[in-house]
Design a protein that fits this description.
By secondary structure, the chain is an alpha/beta fold. Helices cover about 30% and strands about 15% of the residues.
């Protein structure tokens, strides 16, 4: 079997989150991983950021603008980390192309991985419609991006192949 789905590493219980916290792994994802169906990546760690790290937010949910070269994605102390986020997103695109992946299942609301909403850049817990940098980069590369709330949709797609 060859890989079909790019997945956020934190959804598989890997210690990659900004706060160093482990999320419970999704059993279905672990099963697919054991079958060799997944390519697993944390874009922020791949981009060179440590664990733990300061939280960061995409201004206005505009992940696409950051991907296209804009500055302004800052951590909670005001350091611009746009470059590291782009670097991680580029690795996600490269992996998707290398493995000919059409789908990604990424962590909701993340400044890298969020596909529908992100926090707005004010560090006040405010969500906006928009997407993270990696989610935008993958979408622009022709990959359909889902989040864990859409796992049932991805399961249907995986059954059809
Ligand atoms: Fe890494 Fe994405 Fe998970 Fe954040 S949401 S820890 S960037 S895989």
């Amino acid at each position: 079997l060859k890989p079909r789905l790019l997945v956020s590493a934190c959804l598989l219980g890997q210690r990659v989150r900004y706060d160093g916290r482990l999320l419970p792994a999704y059993p279905q994802l672990l099963a697919w991983q054991a079958q060799g169906l997944l390519v697993v990546l944390c874009p922020e760690v791949a981009g060179g950021l440590p664990v733990p790290r300061l939280p960061a937010e995409v201004p206005g949910g505009q992940g696409e603008l950051i991907w296209r070269g804009a500055a302004g994605l800052c951590d909670s102390q005001g350091h611009d980390v746009s470059q590291a986020f782009r670097h991680g997103a580029a690795q996600a695109v490269q992996l998707a192309q290398q493995h000919d992946l059409r789908w990604a299942l990424l962590k909701a609301r993340s400044p890298s991985c969020g596909n529908q909403h992100t926090y707005d850049g004010s560090f006040t817990g405010t969500l906006v419609s928009g997407e993270g940098v990696t989610a935008a980069a993958l979408r622009l590369a022709g990959v359909t991006v889902f989040c864990e709330d859409q796992l049932a949709d991805v399961e249907r797609l995986m059954l059809d192949v």
